[in-house]
Amino acid sequence: MDPASAIQHILIVADIEGSSGCWGYEGSAFMTRDWVGACEAMTADVGAVARALLNAGVRTVTVKDFHRSGYNLLPARLPATVRVISGYQIGPVPGMGAPPAAEAVMFLGMHAASGTRGFLAHTLTSRLSDIRVNGSILPEIQLFAASLAPFGMGPLFFSGCPEACRQARAVVPGLTTYAIDKSRGLDGFDAHAWRQGLAAAAVATLDKRPSRVVLPEGPLHTVVTMRDGAAAAAGIARRWGMKRDNDRLFFEAVDIHHLYRELIRICYLTPWIESRLGWLLPLFNLKGRLGMMWVRRQIRSGTHGRRKQFAAVRTDKSGLQ
Prior knowledge:
Blueprint: E1 9-14, H1 25-28, H2 33-55, E2 60-65, E3 83-85, E4 104-110, E5 128-133, E6 136-137, H3 140-148, E7 154-160, H4 162-171, E8 176-179, H5 191-203, E9 220-226, H6 230-240, E10 243-245, E11 248-253, H7 256-268, H8 271-275, H9 277-301
Parallel strand pairs: 1-2, 1-4, 2-3, 4-7, 7-8
Antiparallel strand pairs: 5-6, 5-9, 9-11, 10-11
Helix pairs in contact: 2-5, 2-9
């Protein structure tokens, strides 16, 4: 590949479940000891890819922190030229706000969809135990890539557990994926070497054209099954005027963008909250910033107990597909 990449600006969308430091629910949960180490490892994963892209000739790398509060990355540990978008904005892209003028998007640390057997599998929230759209599962990459497509960004690369990678290739034909297999646990996992393979795999995609996500044709007949049962489904059905049968909610969306908005309502909002998002969202973002202040204190004090997944043991570089 030429020293100067044809792609000059890449957006990285980063999650934590498929990162090299999250090995159980506690690693993804807000303000736990395991989350501190997972934040460090997630930052190291993103940093390795960002440095490799910049060294390959990409001029600009922007990173959207897209896990839970939107505050998980440690920007001081990333290359100085990398811009990190933390927290959440209302739109035009849900959660992200106004996207950067990037030419391609890479998804790092992702997970599989609700109702599937991937590592910590869920779509938007674990409160949704299953989502079917016109009979098919709904991975998050389908929502995220569709939201970014109108701004000229196509998917270029994806990493996550093997099931998440399989689902991503199914909805984005030709997409390059790099898997992290957590089925065997921490024993024998070499985070540093895996990270090097991740970065090399991402750089190898720079001579490709971004792919296009396959979108279901409307109307989108959507069935959402609530983890907490019929009572939870009944409350949401009343709140948003949806049809319900036991623990399942039914609605139709005209397209993927409408579908995304309705899922956000189900997962996170009430009519009262929706009408006041303009001032409630900054408070939510403040909570995320305070959480990261706590993470930094834990790191400085050394009391969070770094776990052995951050020590080099060995690697399996067969994740590239």
